[in-house]
């Protein structure tokens, strides 16, 4: 089951150095993240077959997207609890100075209304799933524009280019996680 694979992978990732969660608390929070990613990737790919009016936002495999979402969250925020809870330390430059929310560091803008953006804040199941789905949509748009997963990662990270040297590292990391779990 994809959720179990995502959780197993997430549990191997190094916790953010400032997190003070007990192992049980971290496992519970990572379970929410794994479930949210599994559901968001199903919705984004219309898998299992959804209603006839389902329009996929990611045209690749669900598993690929799911592990890419986990990778993006890890690279963007190290799955830090305080970021997940919406408590960014803006004075330290976190969350792009307060312009980004969620583990996926999403910004409000033409593709994400301010109202929807604000609904992504929080470590509970619903905001986490909404945030994962918005990240999937952003990655899907970027992949459609750039033509590759590496290009999608680059455009997601930079907002302006399909080329960004660290994108290959993230793409390889996502592939390794997917293959391992």
Can you offer a commentary on this structure?
This protein is an all-alpha fold and 181 residues long. It has one domain (2-180). It contains nine helices and two strands, in the order H-H-H-H-H-E-E-H-H-H-H. It has helices spanning 2-12, 23-45, 62-77, 81-84, 95-98, 114-118, 125-146, 149-158, 166-180, and strands at 100-101, 106-107. A hairpin with a 4-residue loop joins strand 1 (100-101) and strand 2. The longest helix is centred in the first third of the chain and has 23 residues, at 23-45. The protein starts with a helix and ends with a helix.
Short description:
With 181 residues, this protein is mainly alpha-helical.
DSSP E strands, number: 2
**How much strand?**
under 5%
The chain-level structural class is mainly alpha
Low-confidence stretches: none
Strand order of the largest sheet: 1-2
- How many separate domains? 1
CA(first)-CA(last) distance? 10 Å
Q: Overall 3D geometry? A: globular
The whole-angstrom Rg is 15 Å
Q: Helical percent range?
A: 55-70%
Main beta-sheet strand count, sense and barrel state? 2 strands, antiparallel
């Amino acid at each position: 089951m994809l959720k179990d694979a995502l959780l197993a992978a997430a549990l191997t990732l190094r916790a953010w150095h400032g997190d003070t969660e007990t192992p049980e608390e971290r496992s519970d929070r990572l379970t929410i993240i794994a479930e949210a990613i599994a559901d968001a990737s199903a919705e984004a790919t219309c898998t299992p077959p959804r209603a006839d009016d389902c329009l996929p936002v990611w045209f690749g495999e669900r598993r690929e997207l799911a592990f890419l979402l986990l990778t993006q969250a890890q690279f963007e925020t190290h799955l830090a609890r305080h970021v997940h809870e919406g408590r960014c330390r803006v004075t330290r430059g976190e969350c792009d100075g307060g312009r980004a929310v969620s583990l996926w560091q999403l910004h409000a803008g033409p593709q994400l209304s301010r109202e929807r953006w604000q609904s992504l804040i929080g470590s509970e199941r619903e905001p986490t799933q909404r945030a994962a789905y918005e990240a999937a949509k952003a990655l899907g748009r970027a992949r459609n524009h750039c033509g590759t997963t590496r290009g999608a990662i680059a455009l997601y990270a930079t907002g302006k280019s399909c080329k960004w040297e660290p994108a290959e590292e993230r793409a390889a990391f996502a592939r390794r996680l997917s293959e391992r779990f």
